[in-house]
Specification:
Elements (H helix, E strand, L loop, with lengths): L3 E6 L5 H8 L9 E8 L1 H10 L2 H18 L2 E8 L3 H10 L4 E9 L9 H8 L5 E11 L2 E6 L7 E5 L4 H15 L4 E9 H4 L7 H21 L4 E9 L1 H12 L3 E5 L14 H8 L4 E4 L3 H4 L2
Length: about 300
């Protein structure tokens, strides 16, 4: 499925907390990891006055050793500058086919926190990106981070609008199925805004067509070894209904395309995928259109 992952960490990442989840990358086929702690230029300058170079490298080295103990071949480094261009330059240089970022969300609002490397990587996505969910709260006045446990071969939820990008994301889901995925929930949301009022009389017709498409996807998954496949056709706002489905099914992973029908070639906050990233507490494997297709 994937071979080499670029793991993007922040200056204030809880390396031990994130490290507990990364062994799950083995289930995605990952054998090699490059762990990079990205510092903003101001963080790098401030750190130079209070830390030695060895101290800056200490956390990523601990994660590298933990990854090697889990069975990965791993490298680690700390870099100043956290532009997406630098992330993808490193990914290309080291032959990475998966990017892993921390999707931090506030424990009170439940929404993804702005800023950091994760947002810029997602906004400028080129490679499949695994967004880990890290809950940030305060305990006795001290910031605390807890990560959503990662079970990538347990139960995956796959939202689809039957677009080209959804087809590409489904191909990744099939690869995950070949690696032992046990349960999948397929979700399609009939968009109320698009169907009402002019197409409301054809809802049953559209639902039957959607059911046929989902049945076909179910058959493909069963041929790959998935034992339990659930199908949901919902009606309403796609973001709201997908989030409801995630909560109701308690899926451990969401697999979805980063763009759907009608979206422009560039990602932007407000799209369905980005709303799911902002509001879901479940890890997400976000699959982009290949570059040669996205530019056409």
């Amino acid at each position: 499925m994937f071979k080499r992952a670029l793991i993007c960490m922040e200056f204030d990442s809880d390396f031990s907390e994130v490290g507990t989840c990364l062994s799950g990358l083995l289930n995605l086929g990952v054998k090699e990891c490059l762990v990079v702690q990205f510092l903003s230029y101001s963080e790098a300058v401030n750190a130079s006055f209070s830390y030695s170079t060895n101290h800056l490298q200490k956390n990523v080295e601990k994660m590298r050793l933990a990854l090697e103990k889990s069975g990965f071949a791993a490298e680690a480094k700390t870099l100043a500058g956290r532009s997406p261009r630098e992330v993808y330059r490193l990914a290309q240089e080291y032959g990475c086919d998966l990017v892993v970022v921390e999707g931090r969300y506030d424990s009170l609002s439940g929404e993804m926190l702005a800023g950091g490397i994760a947002g810029s990587v997602i906004h400028n996505q080129i490679l499949p990106t695994l967004v880990l969910r890290v809950e940030v709260s305060e305990e006795q006045g001290t910031p605390c981070a807890r990560i959503k446990l990662c079970n990538f071969t347990g139960h995956a939820l796959f939202p689809t609008d039957f677009s080209q990008n959804a087809d590409i994301a489904f191909a990744e889901l099939e690869k995950l199925a070949e690696r032992g995925l046990s349960r999948v929930t397929l979700v399609h949301v009939m968009d109320k805004v698009r169907l009402e009022p002019h197409l409301k009389d054809r809802i049953d017709e559209f639902r039957a067509l959607d059911q046929q498409r989902l049945d076909s996807l179910e058959q493909r998954l069963r041929e790959k070894g998935v034992t339990t496949v659930d199908i949901q056709i919902r009606y309403g706002n796609p973001t709201v209904e997908i989030l409801n489905a995630v909560r109701e099914t308690d899926a451990a992973l969401i697999v979805m395309g980063s763009q759907g029908r009608g979206f422009v070639s560039e990602l932007f906050l407000g799209s369905i995928s980005h709303n799911i990233i902002r509001q879901s507490k479940t890890p997400i494997l976000l699959v982009p259109l290949p570059d040669h297709i996205a530019k056409t």
